[in-house]
Amino acid sequence: MSIILILVLIIAVILGVPDIRRKLISRPAFKMFKRVLPPMSNTEREAMEAGDVWWDGELFSGQPDWFSLLKTKVPTFTAEEQAFIDGPLEELLAALDDFEINVHERDLPEAVWALIKKHRFFAMIIGKEYGGLDFSAAANSHIVSRIATRSLTAAVTIMVPNSLGPGELLTHYGTMEQKQYWLPGLAKGTEIPCFALTGPEAGSDAGSIPDTGVICKGEYNGEEVVGIRLNWSKRYITLAPVATVLGLAFKLYDPEHLIGEKDELGITCALIPTKHKGVEIGDRHYPLTQAFMNGTTYGKDVFIPIDWIIGGKKYAGKGWQMLMECLSAGRGISLPALATATGHNAQRFTGAYAFVRHQFGLPIGKFEGVQEAMGRIGGLNYSIESMRRLTVTALCEGYSPSVITAMTKYHMTEMGRQVMNDALDVHAGKGIQMGPLNYLASTYMGTPISITVEGANILTRNLMIFGQGATRCHPYVLAEMEAAANEDEEAGLRAFDHLLIKHIGFAAGNTCSAFWHGLTGARFANAPVSGETTKYYQQLSRMSRGLALCADVSMLTMGGDLKRKEMISARLGDVLSHLYMASAVLKRFEDDGRQVADLPFVHYALANHLHAIGVAFAGFFQNFPNRVVGGVLKFLVFPFGIRYQKPNDSYAQAISEAMMQPGVARERHTFLSYWKDDAEDVTGHMELAFVRMHELQDVYKRVQKAQKKGELNSNLLGNELADEALAKEVLNAEEAEQFRECEVLRMRAIAVDSFAKADVKQGKFSAKPI
Ligand SMILES: Cc1cc2nc3c(=O)[nH]c(=O)nc-3n(C[C@H](O)[C@H](O)[C@H](O)COP(=O)(O)OP(=O)(O)OC[C@H]3O[C@@H](n4cnc5c(N)ncnc54)[C@H](O)[C@@H]3O)c2cc1C
Predict the structure, then answer these.
(1) 339 CA to middle of ligand 1, Å?
(2) How many CA atoms lie less than 13 Å away from 673 in the CB half-sphere?
(3) How many C-beta atoms surround the C-beta of residue 715 within 10 A?
(4) What pTM did the predictor assign?
(5) In the beta sheet, which residues pair with residue 268?
(6) Of 608, 579, 542, 201, nearest to 382 (Cα)?
(7) In terms of DSSP bridges, do strands 245-253 and 362-363 run parallel, antiparallel, or are they unpaired?
C-alpha cells in the first residue's frame, strides 16, 4: 500500500511541478513528437486545415454531448424556397424524360435547357443582388435530390453550377468587378460555367497538376499588360462542352518577378471566357451512358490578363486553399443528393413492385429472401436520409465541416450503391431491360459516377476521413502540431507542455471509461432520452470512448507511419463515420416525433451501424502492427469480445411489410421520390397499380383461395380468370369488372420494353411494352 502511495506521490510531483514535468516528460515528448510528425506538403496542410469541426469533434472527444445534438434546430424552407419547390421544380420534373434524354437526345432537350435558365436553377448559390436565388443548403439539397429521382443527367447538370466552381469561388473570393461582370450572367444562365482541375496525369493527386501559367507581359485589347501565359490539358470536365466560362486551375510561376519576389506561387484559379483566343473546348466523354455534358479542354500559350485570376492578384497561388475551403457544398450536398435519390426511389418503387409482382402465387415481397434485400433497402434508406439531414443541418448552421462532408460523400454514395444493387436484384429482369418502363437502369448505370467524383471513394475513405479527422477532430493534436511547428522552440515547448498535460488526462479518462463501459455493457453511460433508443446512445458513447483511445494509441505508436497505414486508419475512420450516421438516425427519430412506424427502420439502421463499428474495430485490432498493443486495446474496449450483431431478421421483415403498404409512413420515407401523376408515365402507372391492388386485396385473396382449392382454373389470367370467377360466383359482377381493370394495371406495371430489331440496329428505340 505504502509503495503505491509513494508511486502516486512521485507521479503527482512529476506531473504537478512544471519545471520537473517539462524536463522529464514534455521536452523528450516534444522532441519525439517533432520527429514522428508526418511530413506534409503545402497542399496537404491546406487541405488539412480547411473547414470546420462540428458534431464529429464531439464524437471524437469520447464524450458526445447528446443534448446539444438533439437541441440543434432542423432547417426549414423560406416561403420563397417553398414556392420554388412547389412551382418551378415540379414544372421541371414533369418535363424530364430520362430515357429520351439519355438515349435519343443524348443531351437535355432545348425546352428543358430553357426551363432551367428561365427559373434560374443554376443560381441557387448566387446572391440576390446579382439576380441569384440565394437558397439555403437545405433547399439546394432538397431540389437536387428530387431532380435526381427523375433524371441523373438533369441533376448533374444543375448541381455543378451550384457546387464547387466559378459561382461559388466568385461569391467567396471574386473582386467586385468580377462579381458584377460574371454573376448576373451565371444567374440567368446566359453564361454556363465549368471548372477544370483534373487532367490525364492528375486525378486524385490534384495538387500535382502539370498545367502551368507563367506571368509575363503580353498584348490584350491592343495594349501591353501584365498577364499569364497558360498551357493546360484537362479531361473529365462537367459542362465543358457547353461552357461559356472556364474556371481553370493551374500552377503559377513568376520567373521575372513581375508581381512579387517568389518564383513559384502555387495553384491558382482563373476565369476565362471560352471564346477567348486559344481556348480549346475538346470532344465529349460519354460517362456510363449518361448524357450530361462532360469533356476535355486544352490550350497552348494562351495569354490572359492577370486580373482574370479569381480574386485578382492577391489570390495568386491561393487556388488550392480556395478549393479546399469550398469543397463542402459538393461533398455535403450534390453527390449525397444522388445517393438520396437512389435511396428514396429504391424504397418507393421496390416496395410497390414487390407487391404487384407475383410469383408462386404470392407477391414476391412475401418471400424471406426478397425481404432480406428489402430490409437492407429500407434500413439503409433511413440512414441515407438521416445523414443527408444532419449534414445539411451543419451547413445551414454556417459550418463548413470538411470531415463530415467527406464522410457524407463516401458513405451516402456507398449506401446508395448497395441499395441500388438490392433494388435491381428484387426487380430482376424488370430492372435489366432498358427502356422508358425501366425507372432503375439509368441510376444504376450512373452510380459509379458519384462514387468517383469529388474525391474517389477509396481515397476519401483511406486518406481523408481519418487522416483529416484525427488531427481536426481531436481536441489537442492540431494544437500540438502547431506548437511543434513553432519556430521559437521554447515558446513551442511551453505551449506543448500545457497541451500535453491535458492530453494525458484526456487519454487516461478515455482508457478508464472505455474499460468501465466495456465491463458494464455501457449500462451507466449517459443518454438524453428514455425508451427503445436509450441503449443505442449508451453504446455510441462507449464506442466514442473506444475510438478516442484507439486513435491516441495509434498516433502515439505509429506517428507519421499512420498516414501510410491506410488499412488501419481507414477502419478508425469507419468507426467515426458509423458513429456519425448512428447519431443522425437517432436525431431524425426524435425530430420526426418518435414515430412508432419508424421503429423497425431505426432498430435496423442502428444495429447495422453498431455492427459495422464492431467489424471495423475487429479489423483494426487484428491488424494492428504491434500485436501486444492491439490485444491490450481490444481487451480494454471489448473485455467480453465484440458482440454487436447484424440487424435481426424480424426488422427486415417488418421493413419489407411497411414498404409494401401505401400510406403516411411510405410517403414520409420516400418524400423526395418524384412520380408523375399520369398513368402514361411508368412512375404514375406503378403508383396506380400498387394502390388499386391494395384496394382490391380482398378480391385478389378470394380469387387466389378459390384457385388453391381448385374451384378456379389456376392457369387462367386476366379477363378469362375474371369471367370464370364471375361464372362460379367467386366474384360478383362489380368485383369481376374491378378485377379485370386491375389486372390490366398489374400487367402494365410488370411490363418491360421491347424494340423492333431493325430500329435497335439504327440506334432508334421506339418502345413496345411486353
Ligand atoms: C463523370 C465525371 C465528372 C467529373 N467532373 C469533373 C469536373 O467537372 N472538374 C474536374 O476538375 N474534375 C472532374 N472529374 C474528375 C474527378 O474528380 C476525378 O476523376 C477523380 O478525382 C478521380 O481521379 P481519377 O479518375 O484520375 O482516378 P485516379 O486518381 O487514377 O485514382 C484511381 C484509384 O486510386 C485511388 N487512389 C488514388 N490515390 C490514392 C491514395 N493515396 N490512397 C488510396 N486510394 C487512392 C482512387 O480512390 C481511385 O480508386 C470528373 C470525373 C468524372 C468521372
Answers:
(1) 18
(2) 25
(3) 8
(4) 0.95
(5) 250
(6) 608
(7) unpaired
Beta bridge partners of 216: 227
Q: What are the φ/ψ torsions at residue 591 (nearest 5 degrees)?
A: -60, -35
Please tell me which residue in 414, 454, 480, 735 is annotated as part of the active site: 454
Q: What is the pLDDT of residue 38?
A: 65
Q: Which among 162, 204, 298, 563 is the best mutation to test ligand 1's pocket, defined by most ligand atoms within 8 Å of the CB?
A: 204
Residue 487 has what DSSP assignment? S
Residue by residue, DSSP assigns 161-220 as: TTSTTHHHHHHHH--HHHHHHHHHHHHHTSS-EEEE---SS-SS-GGG---EEEEEEEEE
Q: Residue ranges of the chain with pLDDT lower than 50? A: none
Residues 6+ apart with CB under 8 A from 45: none
Q: In what helix (H) or strand (E) does residue 359 lie, and over which residues does it extend?
A: strand 358-359
Q: How many residues does the chain have?
A: 770
Q: Whose CA is nearest to atom 26 of ligand 1?
A: 203
Q: How far apart are CA 14 and CA 24, in angstroms?
A: 8
Q: Judge contact between 287 and 237, C-beta under 8 A.
A: no
Q: Which is it for strands 245-253 and 212-220: parallel, antiparallel or unpaired?
A: parallel
C-alpha cell at 155: 441533376
For residue 173, report the distance from its CA to the centre of ligand 1, in Å.
26
- 370 C-alpha to ligand 1 centroid (Å): 35
Strand partners, 234: 297
| Distance, CA of 8 to CA of 123 (rounded, Å) | 64
Cα angle 585-61-626, degrees, rounded to a multiple of 5: 105
Contact 194, 240 (CB under 8 A): yes
Q: What is the pLDDT of residues 377-417, one digit of tens each?
A: 999 999 999 999 999 999 999 999 999 999 999 999 999 99
The alpha carbon of 454 and the centre of ligand 1 are apart by a number of angstroms equal to 7
Q: Which residues line ligand 1 (CB under 6 A)?
A: 195-198, 203-204, 236-238, 287, 294, 449, 452-454, 456, 458-459, 462-463, 566
CA torsion sign for 15, 20, 24, 29 is positive
Which of 529, 448, 430 is CA-nearest to residue 754? 430
80 is known as an active-site residue: no
- Burial label, 653 (beta-carbon count in 10 A; 0-12, 13-18, 19+): middle
Q: Which residues, in sequence order, are CB contacts of 420 under 8 Å at separation 6+?
A: 342, 346, 440, 443, 444, 447
Ligand 1 atom 16: the closest Cα is on which residue?
453
Q: Which residue has the cell 414520409?
A: 668
pLDDT at residue 40 in the model:
66
Q: What is the pLDDT of residue 9?
A: 80
Terminal-to-terminal C-alpha distance of the chain: 86
Tell me which residue of 424, 421, 415, 485 sits closest to 450, measured CA to CA: 415
Residue 120 is predicted with a pLDDT of: 98
- Cell readout for 125 is 448559390
Taking the centre of ligand 1 as the mean of its atom positions, its distance from the CA of residue 335, in whole angstroms, is 14
Q: Which atom of ligand 1 is nearest to the CA of 198?
A: 11
- The closest of 320, 307, 311, 321 to 179, measured between CA atoms, is 311
- Give per-residue burial for 246-255: e unless 16+ CB within 10 Å, then b: bbbbbbbbbe
Phi, psi of 7 (to 5 degrees): -60, -45
Give, as one character, the DSSP assignment of residue 365: G
Q: Which residue has the least CA distance to atom 44 on ligand 1? A: 459
The answer to whether the beta carbons of residues 231 and 194 sit under 8 Å apart is no
DSSP string spanning 244-302? SEEEEEEEEE-TT-SSSS-SEEEEEEEEEETTSTT-EEEEE--GGG--S-EEEEEEEEE
At 69, give phi and psi (nearest 5°): -65, -50
Closest ligand 1 atom number to CA of residue 240: 8
